[in-house]
Amino acid sequence: MVKTKKKDLTPEERLAEALVPEDEQPYVIPENWVWTQLPRVCEYIRAGGDKPKNFSETKTTANNIPVVANGINNDGIVGYTDVANEKKNTVTISGRGTIGFSVLRDYPYYPIVRLLVIAPNRATLPQFLKLAFDNFLEEGVGSSIPQLTVPMLKDKIIPLPPLPEQHRIVERIESLFEKLDRAKELVQTALDSFETRKAAILHKTFTGELTAKWREENGVGMESWEETTLEHHVSRLGDGIHGTPQYNDDGNYYFINGNNLSGFSIEIKPDTKRVNETEYLKHRKELNNSTVLVSINGTLGKTAFYDGEPVMLGKSACYFNVLSSLDKHFIRYYLETKEYIDYANLSATGSTIKNLSLKAMRNLPLQLPSLPEQQEIVRILDSLLEKEQRTHELCDIIEKIDMMKKAILALAFRGELGTNDPSEEKTVEFIEGDD
Known about the structure:
This protein is of the alpha+beta class and 435 residues long. Among the domains are: 34-161, Adenine-n6-DNA-methyltransferase TaqI, Chain A, domain 2; 226-368, Alpha-Beta Complex (Adenine-n6-DNA-methyltransferase TaqI, Chain A, domain 2). Helices cover 33% and strands 18% of the residues. It has eleven helices and 20 strands. The protein has helices spanning 11-18, 126-136, 150-154, 163-205, 212-218, 277-283, 328-334, 338-347, 358-362, 371-389, 393-412; strands at residues 34-37, 42-47, 65-68, 77-81, 90-93, 102-105, 110-111, 116-120, 157-160, 226-229, 234-238, 253-256, 261-262, 265-266, 274-275, 291-295, 303-305, 311-313, 317-322, 365-368. The chain has a four-stranded antiparallel beta sheet. Helix 4 runs antiparallel to helix 11. It starts with 10 loop residues before the first helix and ends in a 23-residue tail after the last helix.
C-alpha cells in the first residue's frame, strides 16, 4: 500500500486533518468557529536555550535586548544581551517554576532555560493566543505537572473564531480586565494601609506604650515586664508527622499543614486530604483549648487556635500549649508583629522555602507583662482592630475579582461574550498546514 504524502492531499483533506473531529471536541462552540490543533495556528513552538555569552544583568547601550527565563518576577527578564533570537509579538510560557505564566512579548528578546516560545501565524492574533493560554493552562507553583514542555503544548487544541471576532474578544476582555485590575488595585491599597496601621499599633503594644496609662492606674511599671523565652510558658511544643500518612478519602480526620492556618481558625480547604481514625491515633498530638498553632515552613507566622477540629498535623504546623502565665490571645497577636517575623526569618534555614526549627520556637524571646496586663492588651487590641479586621473581607473581594477574570475567559472561549457575528466565515485558510 502506497502511503499518501501530505503534499498530495486535497485542500479539503488537509483541512480535515487540521481540525478536531466533533466527537473529540471538549464542548460546543459557535458554528463559525473551529476546534484546531495548536501547532496549526502557530509558525513554531520551541524552547529557549543557554544563556548568551554576551550577558549583562543591567541594560546598557550595547546590551539592550532582554534575556528572558522562566519566572514571574519582572516578567521573567533576567538580564540583557546584544542580539535577539526571537521577534516581537510572540508569546512566552513558563514551563518551570510558575508553570503556565504567559507574557505577550511586543519586543525582540532572547529566551533561555527552556522557556517556551510560541509564534502565532496569520490565523491568530498574538493577544488572542495569549488569552487562550491564560484560559486553558494551569498557572502556579506546585502545579499538578512537574513542568510544561514543547510536546505537551503541541498536543493542545484550541477553539478558533474568525479574525474579526478575535479582535472583538481581545478588545472586550482588555476593557473588562482594565476595570477589574483598577478595582483590585484600590482594594490592595486599602489592605496595605490596614497592614501599615496594624503594624504601628502592634509595635506600640509590645513596647509597652499601649498600656502605659493602665500601668499608671494600677501602680506598676515597665519593670514588671519579664525578659523570657516561649519555652518557659508552654507545657508542650512540637510539630506534626514528618512522613507521609496513609490517606483515606472516607477518613474522618483532615491532614493539615501551616497553609491551613488562617487568623484565629483552622481552614479546611476543598483539596485537604483525609486520614482514618487508625492513622490519626498513631500520630495524634495533645491538642486542647490552650493550643496555639503556627506555621514554621514556607509562609512563616500564620496562626490559628485549636478548637476541637478533627485534624492531624503535618510537619509545617507547629503547636504549643500555653501555661497559665501566658494568654493565648496575647501570644497570637505577638506572632503577627514585625519583631517576630524578623526573628523567624533570621532564625530560619533555607533560601527558597523557609523552615523554622522547633528549637528556634522554644528560644523565641519575649518581653512578657503580667497576666492582667496581657489581658488588658488583648482587650485594647480587640477593640482597636475590630473595625480594621473587617478590612480583611477585602481579601475575599480580590479572590472574587480573580474568579471573575477566569469566568470571563471561560465565556470568551465558548463564544458567549455576546460579540460573535454568525455571518462571518470560519478562519480556515491558514490552518491547513504546509508540512
